[in-house]
Amino acid sequence: MGHIAIEQVRCKGCGRCVVACPKNLIEYGTELNERGYAYVVFKGSPEQCGGCTLCAVSCPDQGIEVYNSRDRKVFVNTTGLTEAMTHYCPGCTHGVVHRLVAEVLEEMGLLGRTIGIAPVGCSVLAYEYFNFDMFEAAHGRAPAVATGAKRARPDRIVFTYQGDGDLASIGGNEILHAANRGEKITVIFLNNAIYGMTGGQMAPTTMPGQKTTTTPFGRDTADTGQPLRVAEMLATLQTPAFIARGTSHDAKGTLKTKKLIKEAFEHQAAGRCFSFVEVLSTCPTNWGMSPNEASDWVEEAMIPYYPLGILKRPEAVKA
Amino acid sequence: MSKVLMKGNEALGEAAIRAGCVHFFGYPITPQTEIPEYLCKRLPEVGGVFLQAESEVAAIHMVYGAAGAGVRCMTSSSSPGISLMAEGMSYIAACELPCVVINMMRAGPGLGGILPAQSDYFQATRGHGHGDYQCIVLAPASVQEAVDLMTLAFDLAEKYRNPVMVCADGMIGQMMEPVEFRTEGRGPPMAENDWALTGCEGRPRRIVNSLHLAPEQNFACNVRLKEKYDRAAREEVRFEVYGDERPDLLVVAFGTMARISKSAIDDLRREGRRVGLFRPITLNPWPYARCRAAMDAMPVGAKVLDVEMSMGQMIYDVKLAAEGTRAIEFFGKAGGLVPSPDEVAERIRALLP
User: Fold this and answer.
1) Three-class secondary structure of residue A12 per DSSP
2) Which residues in chain A have their CB less than 8 angstroms from residue B23's CB?
């Protein structure tokens, strides 16, 4: 059947692939790689592996390549990302979403005419990972920077990649008005319900009762309000837009999210409208969970409050 | 070319287009609002981009995006709005991108008032945002000079890849004067370069970034910027000397206050008094050596009077120029009050023997 190649040095041992494999052919390892992570190992035989690619789809670190029964690569790492190994914590799904964006742009043949904008937050170094022209913006200002770049170069593909502190808190005004103007940009919004880079403070998206370093007794909504549903809020605007929410916590959700990201860039490429994809993601480190517990928490705590799907499409394509 | 009668703000808008700037991002604030109002009509005529941002914060970051994408671009605002732009200007300077920012100064602090002032001098010349960066600052004293300095502003912004501030006051923005444009039509676009983000087709990718987590790398950036500012200090100092060459009293003033001081000086010279003016046109880099030379040319016991529409901000640069060789007197009004020529003349008379 198929087989996989795990690049040991890239593996952070998060085990997302262990959970993703439908045949339980990957297990946690005990050997440490040169970066100090216990990398996962493929314990199956080629006869057992179906080459389904779900392990590679789940991997945040570009660490798995998948071959089919004829030894042909069926999961190839995208050229839209650099070779750099990310600084993200094990089990954080920023790497997954980076890959989805890069894959979509590569598949659409857009890498050479894309300008990306990195935020402030955990993904501040996204410019090191995306393999095309990149800005690094001030905290929350990425939609304004994108507006300037897109208005200057309307024939280029311009997108922002922002987290929830950046977009939903300090950058609330910039995202609202970029959406309302109908800027022909794409916004990829990672919602992990916490400030990651600064060490786990409350975000506007933090769940009720969720413990963070600034809500040590759990988020009290009487004091700090309810979690902000940015996608829903933007979907109320009268300006045509594509607004959707996906998730990156499991392989199935990740594959669906890729479709949403692709549609978002298609709307931009057609010059149609503002496009926005919120992606639920995990922060095992600051949630105080293992990577797989974190994935479960997205499923149990976040998705019921942040439902997945397309919230808004431009009228012209609805039919 | 014939002269036209134009309001300062509108003339600045036209001057920007003639200088090849057809991308404008701004937010309304008195007393500069006629700049966006003029450009929103004119820019579509020349195939340009006008965008009213949701805030000054957004406006300056739109400028960051447009400048980084390699187009000649600008914004304009007035004092409280410029405060909000501090963040973006720090990023633009750190990323070494060119842009022009007009500040039609109004009275402060806080909401202050909408009348002219020069009380953003510290803000303009001392970096204004966070970090070790500077803006090149040009201070016009008339509508004509404001128009002429716009072309220079874009030239310097691109030569040094740094924000350039045209620091005028509400008086220059609001008054109408005959003005001559030296060029016609829409000026040329920014030259091709090796840093703009345009999509990496056919070349290595580029990054516009100001994050340098390694201190050595950040220090290298600081050093590179400082070398640039030092070079500007050597090559770009501009100033005007007016009146007596060996005066008994030298007025140091900029912008509108220099112009008012000239009237006072003219009156006093008609009375037979020897009075001169030193007017910095570049507020940063400041013409220390030339101002010192003007002071050194004066007779022993001659006075220096710094005149500003503030509580005294440029006076520290005048003192730096004097290096303790002379006492520096001060006369100024703030809050939107503009000293008249008679008031300046009266103060000068009181200082002269």
Assistant:
1) coil
2) 148, 151-152
